Amino acid sequence: MRARAVRSMLFVFPALLVMGTLGYMAIEGWTAVDSLYMTIITLSTVGFREVHTLSAVGKLFTSVLILIGVGTLAVVATRVTEAVLERGLFRRQRMIREIHRMRDHVVVCGYGRMGATVVDQLRPRGISLVIVDKDPDTCERLDEAGLHYIRGDATDDATLIDAGISRARSLSTVLEHDADNLFVTLTARKINPALTIIARSSSRKNDVKMLAAGATRVLNPYLNGGRLMAQQLLHPSVTEFIDAISTWNESEISLEEVQLAPGSTLIGQALRDAPIRL
User: Fold this and answer.
1) What's the confidence (pLDDT) of residue 221?
2) What secondary structure, in 3-state letters, does the chain show?
3) pLDDT tens digit string along 183-223?
């Protein structure tokens, strides 16, 4: 309805140009070019002087044209602004509804370099994601990328609840400060005791605190990065092979984790003895 109203209003301005041009030609006897020019400067209210001296009827016609033109442009501008705002609001409300319907999704708190890497690894696998970030520019990029997100402080209980933490299967908190990651871990574990929580830590002394707060795993990018560099120096081929099969790519070789259901006949069996074949 709003879009149709905007389109209909946009046809009014060309109609005013035609009406003004024909009016000046009929009233003042001007040429089509002079009449069109006079109509444009009148509707745009730029304040240029008249092309020719106006008659009394011409002045009345100009006054009416100004009132109609200014009013029309104001209405068009208002309708276009409302349409743009409503479109963004509708898209946002639809995304919120989709988040509320999500189950077994992954919540990523923080969309910095690490958070973006986590998302880039999970998204191609078709895993449902909800990203939590409070930076407006970051949220705008997420919106443009078509990602589900909650704009807010991840350390706030209400924000995590909006992200569906009670229905999520796992959470990755990669905020800039360890204290924030610790608080997110503590809050998320309280809301969802069965949640798998992977927390980022920049200090070894905070690893124990995060584990005590409920983190399933704690990753230190500096420590893990140093270990990886050492392995690359010592065993480059082995490290590259493990990285290739454990990192998402389009190759035919991949390493996956499969959880066995309780009571499965595979429990306790060696892989060579299990009835699993390609």
Assistant:
1) 81
2) CHHHHHHHHHCHHHHHHHHHHHHHHHHCCCCHHHHHHHHHHHHCCCCCCCCCCCCHHHHHHHHHHHHHHHHHHHHHHHHHHHHHHHHHHHHHHHHHHHHHHCCCCEEEECCCHHHHHHHHHHHHHCCCEEEEECCHHHHHHHHHCCCCEEECCCCCHHHHHHCCCCCCCEEEECCCCHHHHHHHHHHHHHHCCCCEEEEECCCHHHHHHHHHHCCCEEECHHHHHHHHHHHHHHCHHHHHHHHHHHCCCCCCCCCCCCCCCCCCCCCCCCCCCCCCCC
3) 999 999 999 999 999 999 988 889 899 999 999 999 988 77
